[in-house]
C-alpha cells in the first residue's frame, strides 16, 4: 500500500463544487473523488498531479482511451469548417455520413436512425417508436437494468434510489421482470452459490421461471416492447444465455411485442464484438447505441428498420432537439466508429491474454485462501467485466473502490448491492494493465476488513 496522496488542490475545488452543484449529483467520501486535470491513453492525472490507471473509460465512453489521435484530428478538422448546425432543418454533411455509417454497420437491411445526445435520448426514441409501431403503451424490463434517468427511461428503472419521489409518474407504465441467474465466463474454483442465496440475498431467479413470468405478462397483449441490456452495465456485468434471449425473442414475436436492445454500454467493441447481440445471434427490433460512439462527445442513436412508423415530416419535426446531428459530434463519431472497426481484431487478440490474467488472479485468490473469505465470480465479456463478491454485505465495493483509487486505479462499484467491482477500461487496455490491478487487488483484500 502507498502512503496517502496529497489532496490540497482537490479538496479546495471540491469545496467550491459542493456549494454550487445539486447535492444529489456528486458522491463525496473521505478521500473521494479526485478532480481530473488531464488524460492520455489509459492514464488520468488529477489536479494534484497524481496519476491513475483508468479502468472505467469514463463510463465506457472512451473506447480508444483519453485524447486519442483520431479524436483530436477529427475535432480540429471539423471545427475548422462547422461546429453547430440545424439538425432537423438544414442538415450537415457529417450528419448524413454518420447516419449512412450506422445503417451500414447495423443488422438491418433498410436501417434508419434517430439521433440524440445521450443514451437516455436513444431509449426515449425507442419507447416512442415502439408505441407508434404497436399502438401499446406499457413496457417490460429486467431488474437491475439502467436505461437513463430522463422521465420516459425512468419508467423502466426499479431501483428506489433512482425512482424515489417519482413513483406517481412511474406507476403502471412498466413491469419489472426478475433477473435470471447464469454462471460467469470465468469463475472462482471455490464457487458455492446456492439457489437460496441467489434468490433470497440477490433476488435472482431461475431462467425457466423468468420465462414463465414473461409469457404470462405478454399474454395480456398490452406491452409495446421488452427493453434489455445484453449485459447489464450498472447492474453489475450480469448477462443472459443465448438460449434465454432467443426464447425472449420468440415469446415477444408470438404476442406482438417488440424487443429492444440497449447497447449504449455494450456497443462498439466493448464485449469483444462490434455489438453484443452478435454473441447471441438475436437481432432486436430496435438497437440503441451511444457512449463509445461519440469518442467523448455527447451523441447517441436509436436504429431500426421500422422507423417508417413515424410520418414523413410536414415541416415541424416530432422527434428533435437543438443539438440533434451536431456536426462536430457526428464527424468525431464517424471517425471513432471507423477506428474501432479497424482495430477490433487487435483488441480481440489481446483479450486472450487478458483472460489468462483473470485465471491467474483466481489462482492467487485460491492459493491465499482469500476466495474462502471473499468468494467471488467473474462476470461479463470482453472489456466489460465485473468481479462479483456475492457473499459480502451491501456496498462492499465502495471502500474497495476508494482504496484502489488511493493506490492509483480508477474503478467503480456496481450491481444493485454495490458488491461488484467493475472493470471497463478503454479497448486499448493490454494484459499488462490488467495485471497491475489484478495483482494489487489480492494484496488489498488481505488487509481488508
UniProtKB/TrEMBL annotation:
So which domain of life are we looking at? Bacteria
Record Pfam families:
Aminotran_3
Q: Give yes or no: UniProt keyword NAD.
A: no
Cofactor dependence is on: pyridoxal 5'-phosphate
Q: Which GO terms describe its molecular function?
A: identical protein binding; pyridoxal phosphate binding; transaminase activity
Q: Spell out the coiled coil positions from the record.
A: none
Key words of the record = Aminotransferase, Pyridoxal phosphate, Transferase
Family designation: Belongs to the class-III pyridoxal-phosphate-dependent aminotransferase family.
Q: Which protein, by its recorded name, is this?
A: Aspartate aminotransferase family protein
- Organism this protein belongs to: Silvanigrella aquatica
